[in-house]
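Homework help board

Subject: predicted structure for assignment chain

Our instructor gave us this sequence and asked us to write out the predicted structure in token form, then describe one feature. I got the tokens but I'm not sure how to describe them. Can anyone check?
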Amino acid sequence: MSALLEAVLSLGTDLDLATTLQHIVDTAAGLTDARYGALGVIDPERGTLSDLFTHGMTEEERARIGDLPSGDAGIVGLLVREPQPLLIDDLAADPRSSGVPADHPVMRSFVGVPIRVHTEVFGNLYLTEKHGGTFTEDDLALLRVLASQAGIAIGNARLYESARQRERWIEGAAAVTTALLTGSSAEDALTTVAERARLLADASAGVVLQPTAEGGMEIVAASTVDDPGDIVGTTIAPGSPVLVQLLGGEPVFIEDSATDPRMTTHVRARFGPSMMLPLQSGGRLIGTLALPRRRHGRPYTSADRLLASQFASQAALALVLADAQHNRERLAVFEDRDRIARDLHDLVVQRLFATEMMLESTRRRAAGGAADELLGRAVDELDSTIQEVRTTIFALQQPPAEAQGSFRGRVLRETAGAAALLGFQPSVHFRGPVDTLVREPTDQRLIAALRGALAAAHRRVGTTAVEVVVDAAARLDDGGAGVRLTVTDDGPREDGDDTGTVFAWEAPR
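My token output:
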């Protein structure tokens, strides 16, 4: 009785659930003088064993036995189905004993009792091979007292574990929100959500899927313990049963991804239990968070599912807020670009134009000679500068993505790329509404001609200036409307003439 009292007092000394369970089975084996002991934790949703804590066996012996007993056969299954104290003198002679693995140690004497937490059966305590004989009714009475006190200790440990688990998920959701609102790119934001969720759920992988234009879903971000390269880009075909649930905003919980007929991707064979949680905010689905565990991994509990679903809701809200913040920042940039464009147009261009007019008037009043020539060159330079400033103004007034995709933007991108080789920025002039008038396939042919002319200018040694003119309102020799490209550089020609080279290309519109 003193040993029992000491064992009972020691049960509540640790609030870690795994440590408490191991301590219970070790204590029970010591009280009853048993060689082997085990505490099987029952999954209340499936009615099977979800975990097993053992005494008297090494890790090598456990590995040889294999997977956990399913809990649907033999003495283990009997106690799962009928949680009542059980005392057996010889397991080998009992007809209810079956399904013992080949490498399992030989066991004869047996005693087992259920452990209840409040009214719920948490698991069963199994003890075998009593030293010096068989288990007695006194052993069974000791175990029943120990089991009742163990239920209280387990209840406290579960409450503590649940609080700690909830705290970790809350801290993780807060960390994700903070990270997303610091200005991360969209790709980094999704990877952050996948990485944090994987760690919190103790999953083998964390992936984020987003809807595709075809009506399916594609993995756009992944975090795994290994290289996720073969996971990103995997798609779920339109019409998949899983997809129907996700697009409807319903979470999907899967026992075994490798065998579930609803899973159709090529990566499913490596995963087991999985959660697929919709990322939605304001009724709008922005993606799906999937958290698969390794094959034959520990199933997700109802608490895991609840906490992960709450995390997904918080992450979806954070993604929406981060996207809104990014849009506000982009809007501020666009407004600033528009202000700069207006200042250039209202101040710089007008002043340059006024100066050009003054010089032109002065040139006309001049008597001719060298002064007239210098003034004429100054007027031409100002006119060229005005054209370049107007080109810059137009580029500033376009959103960056549209500017890069427009014909004008593609011409500027080609000349900017050539500047790295030439060592200076070519001068570019546009005449007429080039983005409206120059269309396929003329635009592609003109870009190819421009690329070739710039390459030729680079090959000429001594080139210090290149002027590019794209005229969308040109008149061809036959009088028809056309587009003309002129590329002029000051490099020496092959015949030794140093007056420069002029390349011209034109095509009808």
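Reply (TA_rk): Your tokens look well-formed. For the description, you could write something like this. DSSP finds 13 helices and 15 strands in the chain. That's the kind of observation they're looking for.
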